Amino acid sequence: MKKIGFLFLFCVFLTQCKKKNEPLEDCLCIEIYAPVCAGGQQYSNACKAQCDGFTENEIIPIEIPEEGMIVEVNCSLPAT
To answer: Whole-angstrom Cα distance, residue 43 to residue 21?
Structure first.
């Protein structure tokens, strides 16, 4: 769990120098599966959504029922 927190903070650090909703150039993300929805699209992690220009407030985490399980949700539907 500490690794995920560190990775998230690292991703947030990478995105602090961008303008709102502007995709980042040269954005680097670690390949970790922690799916999120942003802008009606599913991303494999928050860092990738932030690289596409979404802010932390616009990113909705997707709950994974079981560790290691890959999930696909319809991100265009409102969160319940």
So the answer is: 15
3-state helix, strand, coil in the chain (%, to 5): 30, 10, 60
Please tell me whether residue 14 adopts helix, strand or coil conformation. Answer: helix
Q: Cα separation of 5 and 76, whole Å?
A: 27
pLDDT category of residue 22 using cuts at 50, 70 and 90: low
Terminal C-alpha separation, the chain: 25
CA-CA distance, 62 to 72, in Å (whole number)?
Answer: 9
According to the model, what pLDDT value does residue 7 have?
47
Local structure of 60: helix, strand or coil = strand
